[in-house]
Design brief:
The complex is a heterodimer of chains A (380) and B (198). The two termini of chain A are 20 Å apart. Chain A is of the alpha+beta class. Helix content of chain A is 47%, strand content 13%. In chain A, strands 2-3-7-6 form a four-stranded antiparallel beta sheet, with no helix packed on it. Chain A has a three-stranded mixed beta sheet with strand order 1-4-5, covered by helices on one side. Chain A folds into three domains: 93 residues, no CATH class; 132 residues, Beta Barrel (Butyryl-CoA Dehydrogenase, subunit A, domain 2), CATH 2.40.110.10; 124 residues, Butyryl-CoA Dehydrogenase, subunit A, domain 3 (Up-down Bundle). Chain B is mainly α and 198 residues long. Chain B has a single domain, classed as Butyryl-CoA Dehydrogenase, subunit A, domain 3, CATH 1.20.140.10. In chain B, 59% of the residues lie in helices and 8% in strands. In chain B, the strands form two sheets. Chain B has a three-stranded antiparallel beta sheet with strand order 1-3-2. The longest helix of chain B has 31 residues. Chain B is globular and about 60 Å long. Classes of the chains: A alpha+beta (380), B mainly alpha (198). At the A-B interface, helix 9, helix 10, helix 11 and helix 12 of A face strand 4, helix 6 and helix 7 of B.
Chain lengths: 380, 198
């Protein structure tokens, strides 16, 4: 099968990620079994490297190998790296400390002082971050959120509302919370919040898979948000809030799509290792290669036009469905009792479902994808 | 055959996976499992049995055990059991769809209940249609191993499609999706697939 020619730097990044993936794989089941005991993994060279690589260059505490230099430079590099890393295990990626999705939002909306505050808070390598958007009864419809920033007579704002299915909800020390200052979509803003703080409570929820992420609930009851913690103050009104974070959302979506695809590759690798001549393997390999090509094309498109939500939605919808489908192929190929005999495979069957609701469920993505007019395809 | 599948569906719908599996397994012991692992209602696990821990299964009253020996079990018996297990899974997924409709009726998006959104209605219609089609497949071809295996694979798809209607709340361990997920693992222990064999 033919695929895209990667430049030497990206090939090096890919190869290094493949090596790291082996270490991630070795930790996968332990994190799934006891996600509260993840601290003992944090000093592993693999997780330290990934934490450093996902931090903007000027805030890095340690030097990175040259081949990692590109990691934060482009959506394509992130996509490529995340496929290979999740091919080791996606669960432990979500268990790591570091900027994660909140970092992308801070990069997009934060001013210099806010970026400084955020990244300095992560310098100890022991700090988890949160990205609090989803609400209990609102699902993935970000424009319908009801949490609110209300003016505080003492200055700044007071944050009130509940967020759910937020990674690191209870253990995160700093992150981004979205709420509204008024009724319109433009009034949805984001703020940096440091926890613990008076008026905040958080607890982890018992989730079926991707347990290392410690998804949970966050409650804000009049939490004080100083004016200088409101993100986007330095930006034009139309770019201060949810729309200004559009590029960050699109990069996140591609990253999640990449992890879903990486997990699909992991399943395929695993099945072929245990049953090399599994029926359908050739077709599965072709579909995985095609999905990777789609992912790379989309990542390049996001690098060129970061504001368009359609390509990232297409790739996330596809790779999530493909990964779920591969769990069924694996079950079929390995036969009776296979899911219990192969705990990694069973874990992946649970983990893969998380990608459906992370950063937009399938139906939300479909609403982004379905065009108002007939689709137009460029002739090549 | 038809009656036993219906009975399994009815029990699982009303009482859950462990009760349904208990009926489906009537007269079948762990050592008849086609692979190395059998799934049983926890109440039927013999003292001292080698049990594979599984948190969600435990909460459903299901245990996975490694039988000490292999008992002879004909292909017809295995297919019949797989058919009854198909009935169990149908009952569970039907219950899940009903709960999903209730869940979506109580949520509002854009000023109207989520259940009235065309995308959602279409999904529910597909789920109901597939449920009816799988039930008929089990009814008319419950003795055909490939048909029963096909029904189980489609039940796995059906369960996932229904689970998605709950959004992230469908991903909670203490939620309605758990039984459907564990039923997939149970079927994986008892149903022989053409590709994988036993």
């Amino acid at each position: 099968m033919t695929g895209r020619d990667l430049d030497p730097a990206l090939r090096e990044l890919r190869d290094t990620c493949r090596q790291i993936a082996q270490d991630l794989r070795s930790r996968a089941l332990a994190v799934d079994a006891d996600p509260d005991d993840v601290s003992r993994h944090l000093d592993a060279p693999s997780l330290t490297l990934l934490r450093t690589a996902s931090t903007p260059k000027r805030f890095r505490q340690e030097d990175l190998p040259l081949r990692f230099a590109e990691y934060t430079d482009s959506c394509l590099a992130r996509a490529l790296a995340n496929v290979e890393l999740a091919r080791g295990d996606a669960g432990i990626l979500s268990a790591n400390t570091g900027p994660s999705l909140a970092g992308l939002a801070v990069d997009a909306l934060g001013d210099e002082a806010q970026r400084e505050l955020f990244y300095r808070a992560l310098a100890d390598g022991r700090t988890w971050t949160f990205f609090a958007m989803t609400e209990p009864d609102r699902g993935s419809d970000a424009t319908a959120l009801t949490s609110r920033f209300e003016p505080d007579p003492g200055g700044g704002h007071r944050l009130t509302g509940t967020k759910r299915y937020v990674a690191n909800a209870a253990r995160g020390s700093i992150g981004v919370v979205f709420a509204r200052t008024g009724p319109t979509a433009l009034s949805i803003r984001a703020a940096l919040v440091q926890c613990p703080v008076p008026g905040f409570s958080g607890h982890a929820l018992d989730m079926i898979g991707l347990r290392g992420a410690r998804f949970g609930e966050m409650r804000f009851d009049g939490v004080r948000v100083p004016e200088e913690m409101l993100l986007g103050r330095h930006l034009p009104t139309s770019q201060r809030g949810i729309w200004g974070a559009g590029r960050a959302f699109n990069v996140m979506r591609v990253q999640i799509a990449a992890q879903a695809l990486g997990l699909a590759f992991a399943i395929s690798d695993y099945v072929l290792e245990h049953r090399p001549r599994s029926p359908g393997a050739e077709l599965i390999s072709a579909r995985l290669a095609a999905a990777r090509e789609l992912l790379y094309d989309v990542a390049v498109a996001v690098d060129r036009a970061p504001g368009d939500p359609r390509p990232p939605s297409i790739v996330k919808l596809h790779t999530t469905a493909l990964a779920v489908e591969l769990t069924r192929w694996a079950e079929r190929a390995l036969g009776a009792g296979s899911l219990l005999e192969h705990p990694l495979l069973e874990k992946w069957c649970r983990d893969v479902c998380a990608f459906e609701f992370m950063d937009g469920t399938g139906n939300i993505l479909r609403l982004h994808i379905a065009p108002d007019t007939a689709p137009v395809r460029e002739e090549r | 055959m038809r009656e036993s599948i219906s009975e399994c569906e009815r029990i699982a719908h009303a009482q859950g996976l462990a009760a349904g599996l208990g009926v489906a397994l009537a007269g079948v012991d762990a050592d008849a499992a086609p692979g190395l692992i059998a799934a049983l209602p926890t109440t039927r696990v013999a003292p001292g049995a080698s049990v594979i821990p599984h948190r969600m299964a435990q909460l459903e009253g299901i245990s996975f055990v490694r039988p000490l020996a292999k008992a002879a079990c004909s292909g017809e018996e295995r297919t019949a059991l797989a058919g009854r297990l198909g009935g169990v899974r149908l009952g569970l997924v039907r219950s899940l769809i009903e709960r999903a409709v209730g869940h979506l009726s109580g949520r509002v998006v854009g000023g109207e209940p989520t259940i009235r959104k065309q995308l959602v209605l279409g999904t529910v219609a597909d789920l109901v249609t597939e449920t009816e089609a799988i039930r008929r497949l089990l009814t008319v071809a419950g003795t055909v191993s490939t048909a029963v295996a096909d029904a189980h694979e489609r039940l796995t798809v059906l369960g996932w499609e229904a689970a998605k209607l709950f959004g992230a709340s469908g991903y909670l361990v203490d939620g309605p999706v758990r039984g459907v997920y564990v039923s997939r693992l149970v079927a994986n222990c008892w149903v022989v697939t053409e590709a994988g064999g036993s």
